[in-house]
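4.2 Preliminary Data

To establish feasibility before requesting continued support, the project team ran the inverse folding procedure on a target of 126 residues. The structure was first converted into the token representation described in Section 3, and no sequence information of any kind was made available to the design step. The complete token record follows.
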């Protein structure tokens, strides 16, 4: 098996991909969103994930993940104690939070804790 130092240390470089599922825990990953219908699914816990490009869908089942990126259209937070930060707010962006202790910042919209299934979780420029 070829073992590159960065990959063996749990750090991955950006990989071109559309949809991806992160099932591992405790990883540092960079994923590239490449267009419409991208679905990034996070099932693992305690990951640090950077998403480049604009992602259409992000679904987080895991716990304790930190996810940063450029922009995301729709987010479903089903896990707990996750932290999301996206610097660009897209029109009609949507966030649905059924977990506990999740926090997010999208563009100028920020909350200490996202309310479960709350319209306040929608980031439509309010």
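Position-by-position output of the design step:
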């Amino acid at each position: 098996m070829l073992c590159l130092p960065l990959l063996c240390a749990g750090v991955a470089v950006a990989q071109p991909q559309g949809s991806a599922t992160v099932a591992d825990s405790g990883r540092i990953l960079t994923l590239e969103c490449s267009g419409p219908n991208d679905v990034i699914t996070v099932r693992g816990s305690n990951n640090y994930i950077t998403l480049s490009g604009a992602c259409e869908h992000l679904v987080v089942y895991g716990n304790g993940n930190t996810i940063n990126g450029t922009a995301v259209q729709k987010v479903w937070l089903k896990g707990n104690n996750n932290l999301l930060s996206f610097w660009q707010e897209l029109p009609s962006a949507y966030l649905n939070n059924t977990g506990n202790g999740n926090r997010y910042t999208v563009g100028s919209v920020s909350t200490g804790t996202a309310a479960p299934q709350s319209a306040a979780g929608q980031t439509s420029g309010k």
